Amino acid sequence: SFYYGTFPAGFLWGVGSSAYQTEGAWDKDGKGPSIWDAFTHKKGKVFRNETGDSACDGYYKVKDDIQLLKELKVNHYLFSISWPRIMPTGIKTEQLNEKGIQFYNDTINSLLENNIIPIVSLYHWDLPQVLQEKYGGWQNISMINYFNDYANLCFEKFGDRVKHWITFSNPWAVAEKGYETGEHAPGLKLGGCGAYKAAHHIIKTHAKVWHSYNNTWRSEQQGMVGISLTSGWGEPVDPHNQTDRDAAERYIQFHLGWFANPIYRGDYPEVMKNYVGRKSAQQGLGTSRLPTFSVQEKAYIKGTSDFLGVGHFTTRYVLQKSFPFLQAASYHTDHDLAELVDPEWPAPGPNWLYSVPWGVRRLLNFIKTQYGNPLVYVTENGVSEKVPCTQLCDGWRIEYLRGYINEILKALNDGVNVKGYTAWSLLDKFEWNKGFSERFGLYHIDFKNQNKPRYPKASADYYRKIIRANGFPNPREVENWYQKAMDTCSITHQLLAADSLIAYMEKVTEIVLPTVFTLCILISIVLLIFYLRNHS
After folding, report:
1. Where are the transmembrane segments (predicted)?
2. Which domains does the chain possess?
3. Staple partner for 80: which of 124, 175, 247, 393, CB 3.0–4.6 Å?
């Protein structure tokens, strides 16, 4: 049932984005290549071979996008810094890029001038390509020190103004999609080992950065350092069946617990250690494919988060499924479970993202129980469309946001220590291996128009009203929001259609006029030659 009520005073409302997905300018002003530049430039890696070379042109449109943030009336903006933009090779002693540092200084200053809090992620997947080529990226322990140098540079240059730092955004995807399935950059398929090794180094890196901040910067800058972990919720198919309940627990532990357990409890989840260890032994390996932390490392890692960022998009039903021993080693067969969806769940966009609002409340309560009720910010939550035509009147996104935000309000009333919400995302943008085919934005971008204009969707208007009311004050007011948002988007749709026609006419003019002019000259020359021949 829907709960009418408001969030506590001081609750933070925001939107998010990431550097590679929005900035473009991939090789401009001294930026070095990232693994995503290298990955997308290889044919067959991304849908329609699209790249983020120009993306949303966010590098050139900071002022425009801050204007959108002002329209939304958000308290904060979550964005990431591109490591190779400020440190082209990823190695501090080799080269710093002052233009890149200036770009982020200008962005942070502009946000603060407009009373918008910057929440900054140090890593949203764009590792410097040089570190991948030289060392194998997150497979190599040397990344810990290189990343720590980069993080300290960011604290030094921006920490006087940035008070909320995220070390890694969704490291699960970095490890699993980058080093297990190869769907994401760097595109390695190191089955059964690669993801665990990458995650192990990322967790150690996170801890080192937290300690660096704690020892060197905290007393002066008074900020916070956390991590953003993305996880679905796993619900047992039969809640009365113990094997289903155990399988659902494993689903959460192999996603969220993989990273959260070492940080909050000092080690990998017991169920992960047991399952991966047993499978490794069955495969004839002398040691587990899941690396181990020493006693000193466990103590060093435990407690290294001032807040937990939570990314959440959808839910699965989970049940037990045993995989045969002879199968090749894989993260996906290690946890012995199968995922199902309810055909009744709305799925407005891609085939993985079903709208199941109650899942977020259960996930937040799990975090409260498992990890001692830490300070939580919801750092990513949203839904995409996957349609060939423009959809500004996105009623289904409104329903998604309304449902999920309402369940977060219920979780708050359950006693969960959640202090902020970030809608994902501000803009339609480059969606990794899906290219531009999936659109998460509250603002539509016409990527065919070289100016990349932004247009508000109905969901932008609706989200603004939630922010202004700080929740859902009463049924009458909330019901009016929907109709007003849909009316506004109809007008914007007409504007977009007119702009698209003008852009098309300009393109035609650009092609046709030079062609006609060239033809006229050629005809004139032919006629002149013909005339001269007749009179000679």
Report:
1. 511-532
2. 11-472 (3.20.20.80)
3. 124
